[in-house]
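Weekly modeling sync, notes
Attendees: S.R. (lead), two postdocs, one rotation student

Agenda item 3: backlog of single-chain predictions. S.R. asked that every request posted to the team notebook include the full sequence so nobody has to chase files. The rotation student volunteered to paste the first one in as an example of the format we agreed on. Action items at the bottom.

Example entry:
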Amino acid sequence: MRQFKNKYFDFSLPVFIPSALIAILFVVGTIIFDQQAEAGFSNFQSFMSMNFGWFINISINYFLLFVIFLAFSKFGKIRIGGANAKPDFRKFSWVAMLFSAGMGIGLVYFSVAEPMLHFSHPIEADLSEIDNARLAMKHTFFHYGFHVWGIYALLGIALAYFTFNRNKPLSIQSTLRPLLGKHLDNGLGSAIDVIAVLATLFGLATSLGFGAIQFSTGVSEMTNISNSIDLQVISIIGITLIATVSVLSGLQKGLKYLSNLNIIIALVLFLFIVLIGSTAYLLDGYVENLGRYLTDFFALSTNRNQLNEEGQWFKDWSMFYWVWWISWSPFVGTFIARISKGRTIKEIALFGVLIPALFSFLWMSVLGGTALEMQIDGTIDLAQVVAEDSSLALFKMLENLPYYEITASLSIFLVATFFITSSDSGSLVVDLMTSGGKIDAPQGQKVFWACMEGAIAIALLIGGGLTALQSASISTGFPFAVILILVSISLLKALRKDEQLEKEN
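Predicted structure, as returned to the notebook:
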């Protein structure tokens, strides 16, 4: 593999150059042709949802089932890095980093907005307000549930195994070597890594875009500054600069401490709402919502709502979420692999799926349940608020609880720290992929990708807002779903081969 190296950069030419050029051309083209870009993003999203939704639906179920199989198979006992490998991080920090990298901004942005949007536009007709609220929470659980973390865990396990047990470079093409062999040497391997880099950049930019919108909304609410595109762009630039400093401080310092801080702030905000609100009602809601999700798990997992407006609900919601999470998977999967040396495959599968999902459920139950309670008892018409501006949902809910200035400030800070950790870990991952799998890239390279992530998020906001953010994820999520299926087959082939060699020796 051809490599370029100097004081500031150390990268694989066939991966870095195409990835950087495509990203730069996208940013420049989208900003110059913003109106055409907006129409193009919308048309592309509709086309892909209409024709390939079935494939994504099958894929996300397969990914989760495969991870469950690995956890409880004989391969679950395999320790990443070898039988005597020790974890680099304590379990709390490890889980905190998994969670912060894998979900973060989405949980804050959609915690109130999504349940209220489902409440306002129910998938079933003629329901009472109570049943409508229950249905809204069940669908919210579905979109933040086990399937999401199954996608991440699959790639995380594969990358960790090939990197630390087979001593291969930390790259997507390494996971495909047992399946595709020499075909990877003819440009296919580099093309796969380029797709992974672009999926990471666009999936991450989608989250950063949502984060910037909510951050600027919070700042606007607290200061009365107009919530404009200009403020959102300034927010992205400012937080990206802070994220760059965190990137340069390294994994053991900046990212670990910020991830722990994320969890602590989230817990403080969460506990405040639990204690100040209807505690028993919210905890009862968590148990009931979880029960409904588990009871209808298989029906939800295969629902495409085809008899209702040609499946429009699925296209607008589930379809977007699945491809967004898939486009995030190279980023989160590589990050999971990087921090999981010393853990067993079973640990990564179970801790990486169950704990983040259960915490997501609890978070959504408390914030979403509080919002729905306010809506039903007439405290505030949050459904109308969300219909006009979904980024306002969390702040308008908090406004109707005590100590609004404190909780709103905490929420703004939480969005900012999630933004920073996402950008930080995203830069780390892109560095790994474009350097040919090297663990530590030079500082100049880290700064380049941190700035590029912010630039793509800015371009998407200027070139179409939320529609552009969704379309960016879809454009890279589809091809990467195919790659993930191949990765799972290749991993299983490698595990069986290594087991056979161990028996022979």
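Discussion: group reviewed the output briefly. The domain at 3-504 is CATH 1.20.1740.10 (Amino acid/polyamine transporter I).
Action items: rotation student to repeat for the remaining queue; S.R. to check formatting next week.
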